[in-house]
Amino acid sequence: MRQPPFPEPRGNKPPAELFADYLDFYRATIEWKLRSLDEAALRTSRLPSGWTPIELLGHLVAMERRWFVWGFAGEQVAEPWGDNRGGEKHAPWQVPESVTLDDLLGPLHAGGRRTREIIASASLDDLAPPGPRFSGEPASLGWICFHVLQEYARHAGHLDIVVELAGGELGE
Questions:
Q1: CB 141 within 8 A of CB 121
Q2: What is the pLDDT of residue 172?
Q3: How distant, in Å, are the alpha carbons of 13, 113, 114 from that of 110?
């Protein structure tokens, strides 16, 4: 797999399309980095916090679904905190030994397609419906896009360090 191309500015795209393009870029970058690791490296923690690269991927899949599908679209999702041990909101991440990289990449990309649908179907000013995701005033789609984009960027940076320590691919 080749390093994904950075989404260079082309014309005057609407902000919603820019969000979707950048999220696609970060998903592809995460996949590229993870595919450079062998199975042992995917399941080895190299940081004091204890997470593994495959657990980071599981977190990203669940995080995007929580914000866009459960939070903004207001749809029920099975185990919204299923990326965390015991389904607890603030528990450490978990991925069962039986779950493979490809098992998680499928939902990552399916979630990306669903995110694109949600972003295309609403205005960035639209508010999420009241529901279990938000205890106070619901967030706007624009706020959610910014939040999810920064979470992907932050975790891609974390993964850069872990992959370098494991001897995997270096790059953007």
A1: no
A2: 65
A3: 23, 5, 6
d(CA 145, CA 15) in angstroms, rounded, equals: 10
Q: What pTM, to 2 d.p., does this model score?
A: 0.93
In 3D space, the residue among 68, 57, 80 whose CA is nearest the CA of residue 145 turns out to be 68
Q: What is the mean pLDDT of the chain?
A: 92
Long-range pairs of 48-54 with CB within 8 A, sequence gap ≥ 24: 50/92, 51/92, 51/93, 52/95, 53/159, 53/162, 53/163, 53/166, 54/95, 54/99, 54/101, 54/104
Encoded tokens for 69: 């599908």
- Give the pLDDT band of residue 8 (cuts 50, 70, 90): confident
85, two tokens: 């041990």
Both tokens assigned to 45: 């923690």
Residues 83-119 pLDDT 10s: 888 888 888 999 999 999 999 999 999 999 999 999 9
Q: How many CA atoms lie within 13 A of 83 on its CB side?
A: 23
Q: How far is CA 60 from CA 54, 68, 121, 137, in A?
A: 10, 12, 22, 24
The candidate with the shortest Cα–Cα distance to 116, out of 56, 69, 60, is: 69
CATH superfamily, domain at 19-166: dinb family like domain (1.20.120.450)
